[in-house]
Amino acid sequence: MKNDVAVLCELADVSRSGYYRWLLHADEPDRDYADYLKIKTVFDRGKGVYGWRSVKMRLPEMNHKKIQRLMRTYGLVTRVRRRNPYKAVMKKRLEHRIFPNKLQRAFRQTTPRTVFCTDITYIPFQGQFVYLSVIKDIASSEVVAWNATPGLEMELVVDTIRHLPPDACANAMIHSDQGFHYTHPGYIELVRDRKMVQSMSGKGSCIDNAPIESFFGHLKDELDYRSCASFEELLLRIAEYVRYYNCERKQWTRQKMTPVEYKEYLLAKGGLRV
């Protein structure tokens, strides 16, 4: 008999001690069976669609790990509802989307109004923040549109796009980070309606949008925003700084020209945009 057990254990790939331990308790009732019946009752009441979380909510006194183990042991498999293809398409259409980096740090553009970069920065103001959204022409370094608001609602970037000159849109690229505003379905649709192409920086890679970061750095260094007594005064100072930046502030890397002068210079050399 002992040899027969050894052969059987070897065939079953179990240890002899394990076999004898099972044999010792073989006639004992399943201590978890009563709990299984409780779970089965709840599972059947849910018509097979209850997972372990739904069962746990209806059996709060039972440990969730035990529920998971018994459902696996007794084959209580949740029936997965068939996916509605129409809802799936609509959900995909309405969710936030990320676009590839088409710009790839190609900051040496030579045709104005073909590649833009955009971002949002904050300006400390009376113990709070004012948020500034800017769109900049990468070729000329000209700020072509901006908007400032006390909050971060979608209108901040939507109105900035709407301030773009009409001739600056069709087939142009607009590059941004992967922030909430730029992946929002409303923003994506507006960019598409303007026949523009979206490009996005890699996640956490601010150098991919270096031109706009450079502008924000100069603005915060040179704009006297701390002495503004009202939001309206701050808007006037931002508008004046943008005019100064575009029309008076010469840039070493733009052949010592202002952005507007450099734009005209590039156009004279054969740029296609006006």
Could you say how many structural domains there are in total? 2
CATH structural fold name of the largest domain: Nucleotidyltransferase, domain 5
- Strand residues, percent: 5-15%
* Euclidean distance between termini CA atoms: 99 Å
Look at the structure and name the CATH superfamily of the largest domain.
Ribonuclease H-like superfamily/Ribonuclease H
Strands, total number: 5
Mind telling me the C-alpha Rg?
33 Å
Largest sheet: 5 strands, mixed
- Percentage of residues assigned to helices: 40-55%
Describe this structure in words.
This protein has two domains: 2-73, no CATH class; 115-268, Nucleotidyltransferase, domain 5 (2-Layer Sandwich), CATH 3.30.420.10. Helices cover 45% and strands 13% of the residues. It contains twelve helices and five strands. Strand 2 and strand 3 form a beta hairpin. The model has no long low-confidence stretch (mean pLDDT 86).
